[in-house]
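Batch 3, record 17
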Amino acid sequence: MKLIDMTGKEVEIRDCLGCEIANGTIDIFGGLLYQGKHFTVAQDFELPIDGFIIIFSKRHVEKFIDLSYDEQIELTTLINKTLKILEENNIAEEYNIILEEKAGYHFHVWLMPRHKWMIEKFGKVLKNIKAIQDYAIQNMKTQEIFDKIKNTCELVKKELNKE
Ligand SMILES: [Zn+2]
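Prediction for the assembled complex:
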């Protein structure tokens, strides 16, 4: 399967997408921001939305209840840490934390920022996620935005890997 990243580059997926990202076997926009014991943090490589961060389990699991206690602790800690970094650096003030369970889909959590432009153009973010993502793909693929996303990636990477 081939996917196109936000800059138009083709990314070849041989296995499960989540497994490939979480275990670093494909090259994605912004790179891997953090690799913990059980989870990997990365920017969504397809959508040009600043601060749209995804946390993938390293194990191929599909359901929240399949996580071990250690995994649950690492996940919630990572969500909390990442949101704090994003908020303190004014990437977005509020986020929707989205966890969708789907048979055959690799476990991941979306940290979906509520940017001003989303609220102005679409009102309720959660209700209009698909429209917001389509809008970003059609209108936000600019070098300026890619640079902004790269900066946010560097920042999150630096902060998450501290200590
Ligand atoms: Zn997988």
